[in-house]
Amino acid sequence: MIEAAKRGLIEGAKQAGVKPAKLLAITQLTSTSQAVLNDELGIEGTVMASVKHLASLAETSGADGVVASALEAPAISEEVADDFLIVTPGIRPQNSAVGDQVRVTTPDQAKSLGSSAIVVGRPITQAADAPAAYQQILQQWR
């Protein structure tokens, strides 16, 4: 599926005369706990082992990177090429509610763990002052 998607991206970009978009694969959602992985999804082993396997498979199949928790970024980095992207959701500012997320980090933790980019949703969209929340997260990321 990733190989076919990559071919389609390249061909479409060539026809449009633009640079192809980056193709990211999902490893395990940041809301996936060990119990959910094993009991609900029926996947044996640890979340970390699953994420590493899926990241390696994604790279081998031609993906430009993966979406994974920042907590797994160091382990993923050991398995893939230096230019392989690790985009990390589950970002929560210090003392922020985690909601349904299980494997979360702060923006600065994500940076130090090796995230290429972060995805932030509710801490901005549900903030009383969304622009200020964005600026605070951006400062923590930098």
- CATH class category label: Alpha Beta
Q: pLDDT below 50 for ≥5 consecutive residues: which ranges?
A: none
Question: Structural class, from helix and strand content?
Answer: alpha/beta
Compute the number of structural domains.
Answer: 1
Number of strands: 4
The CATH topology, please?
A: TIM Barrel
CATH H level: which superfamily?
Aldolase class I
Q: Enumerate the strands of the largest sheet in spatial order, edge to edge or round the barrel.
A: 1-2-3-4
The percent range for strand residues is 5-15%
User: What is the overall pLDDT average?
Assistant: 93
Shape: globular
Largest sheet: 4 strands, parallel
Order of helices and strands: HEHHEHEHEHH
Task: Tell me what you see in this structure.
This protein is of the alpha/beta class and 142 residues long. It has a single domain (26-141), classed as Alpha-Beta Barrel (TIM Barrel), CATH 3.20.20. The chain has seven helices and four strands. The chain has helices spanning 2-16, 34-40, 47-61, 73-79, 107-113, 122-125, 130-141; strands spanning 24-26, 65-67, 85-88, 117-118. A four-stranded parallel beta sheet has the order 1-2-3-4, covered by helices on one side. Helix 5 packs parallel to helix 7. The longest helix is centred in the N-terminal third of the chain and has 15 residues, at 2-16. The radius of gyration is 16 Å and the shape is globular. The termini are far apart.
Key words describing this protein structure:
single chain; TIM Barrel; 7 helices; about 45% helix; globular; alpha/beta
